[in-house]
Specification:
By secondary structure, this protein is mainly alpha-helical. 54% of the residues lie in helices and 8% in strands. A hairpin with a 5-residue loop joins strand 4 and strand 5. It is globular and about 55 Å long.
């Protein structure tokens, strides 16, 4: 009787193992297609475009060059801003916040002050406050964006001076479980960096691996297999040993 029980138990374990192997998601990177960006019209601000209105771009085809940043970004707080930049580079984020907090209350529509302030809050792990600061920044930079009656984007504004802001906002939306918004803002940054940029070198832009894996994660929770697989494949192309993205395969 004991031998029969042992044999039965082993067969049961084998069945579980086989079922587990059968249900494991597979990934075929030969058939993935880059999902289209969800907008009818895209306008890139602060870009000296080499394209005509209505032109379509292929991957690797340069869209233009970024306009030069202004030499003076704040009429009232230039010295404070430059000091805050230096402190940010030294990772003294709390000091940056202390310097910039009063400036954004005066120059309420200055995107440079808001951007550095939001970056410092994000780096200091004060995500809720950072999110509010970034929302203010986007309300300034992307004020001309329009949406269709169903809520889908019509005119999308991408300010190439502040691409990092889209990425930071996207990561906060992902933490909040707002996956569609996370995808939208992630792609506002990533598509410009990788799609229409002839100088793009993924080996020198490691943060893009994280951005790609976050897109795979967001599409996973929306249960959208094709874009999920595409961004999982793109992640693994840049980082073949990436384990994070493997958690989120459909």
């Amino acid at each position: 009787m004991r031998k029969i029980i042992l044999i039965t138990t082993c067969i049961f374990c084998l069945n579980i193992q086989l079922q587990s192997e059968e249900t494991k998601p597979s990934l075929d990177c030969t058939k993935t297609v880059r999902p289209s960006f969800p907008a009818k019209i895209v306008r890139m601000n602060h870009l000296n475009s080499t394209q005509k209105v209505g032109d379509r771009l292929e991957a690797g085809q340069i869209a233009g060059t970024m306009s030069a940043l202004p030499e003076v970004v704040s009429p009232l707080f230039e010295s404070q801003y430059r000091k805050a930049e230096q402190l940010y580079a030294e990772k003294k984020f709390d000091e940056v916040i202390t310097i910039l907090e009063p400036t954004v209350k005066v120059e309420k529509r200055n995107p440079f002050l808001w951007n550095l302030y939001a970056r410092a809050l994000y780096a200091a792990k004060r995500k809720k406050e950072s999110f509010l600061a970034y929302q203010t920044l986007l309300s300034i930079n992307d004020a001309d964006e329009t949406y269709n009656e169903d809520g889908s984007p019509n005119l999308v504004i991408i300010d190439v001076w502040f691409l990092e802001a889209y990425w930071k906002v996207s990561s906060i939306y992902l933490d909040q479980g707002e996956y569609a918004k996370s995808i939208f803002y992630n792609r506002k940054m990533l598509d410009i960096v990788t799609f229409a940029n002839k100088q793009y070198d993924p080996n020198n832009m490691i943060y893009n691996v994280t951005a790609l894996s976050y897109l795979a994660e967001a599409y996973y929770f929306l249960n959208l297999k094709e874009p999920n697989n595409y961004y999982a494949c793109e992640t693994l192309k840049l980082d073949p040993n990436n384990q994070y993205v493997l958690q989120f395969l459909l």
